[in-house]
């Protein structure tokens, strides 16, 4: 809640040093490689999970993935290499450099495990793939619509990771059939498509057929949402518990 200069003065005064100007800080910061922030964040996460009994849900570390957009400041030429310029407003005459961002987030402990940033034209689903090296066996991942795919489900299964996807309307035949059945939940089998058969050779223990559980939620307005999860044991993971999660 203080100005940047006041914060700088307080910091250097605490250490018995002569304070620097805001301009000096900006110039020094410009020399930092941006990768340093991701590396520092990984060290913070490692220290947190090694030293803390983190909060879990039924034994799982619960991670969420979601994306957004970010307007970039300035008009520096370097933006053109990585990002994209888009016009906004009624006449598309208000232009901004834009990016797409994505987080892998520990929802119970408030920890950003990984972050990704790319051009505005990059999909959230594509950025999600960059988070995959940071998940591990025993995690439970939560996804909103547009993330669900056969390949992603089978990849998570191969890595020993459980999932809950919110399914997009009218994209999946099994979901449409399930909604028409009037059931609140159902076990169905998914078959890995031919284009993703490489996963079987990469993960020899992976079966090309996987059982998943579809769960339906109907709100007071009669609107239906369908969730797909690898947690098929309805005794240990009740429908109510998963919807609450």
Topology at a glance:
Blueprint lengths: L3 H11 L7 H8 L5 H17 L9 E12 L6 H4 L1 E5 L5 E13 L4 E9 L4 H6 L9 E5 L6 H9 L3 E5 L6 H9 L3 E7 L6 H5 L6 E10 L5 E6 L9 H6 L1
Parallel strand pairs: 1-5, 5-6
Antiparallel strand pairs: 1-3, 2-3, 3-4, 6-9, 7-8, 8-9
Roughly how much helix do the residues carry, as a percent range?
A: 25-40%
**Spans of at least 5 consecutive residues with low confidence:** none
What is the residue-averaged pLDDT?
Answer: 90
Class derived from helix and strand content = alpha+beta
Tally the helices.
Answer: 9
**Which radius of gyration do the C-alpha atoms yield?**
23 Å
Task: Describe the structure concisely.
By secondary structure, this protein is of the alpha+beta class. Helices cover 31% and strands 29% of the residues. Strand 8 and strand 9 (224-229) form a beta hairpin.
Structure overview:
It contains nine helices and nine strands. The protein has helices at residues 4-14, 22-29, 35-51, 79-82, 124-129, 150-158, 173-181, 198-202, 239-244; strands spanning 61-72, 84-88, 94-106, 111-119, 139-143, 162-166, 185-191, 209-218, 224-229. Strands 1, 2, 3, 4, 5, 6, 7, 8 and 9 form a nine-stranded mixed beta sheet that branches. Strand 2 (84-88) and strand 3 (94-106) form a beta hairpin. The mean pLDDT is 90.
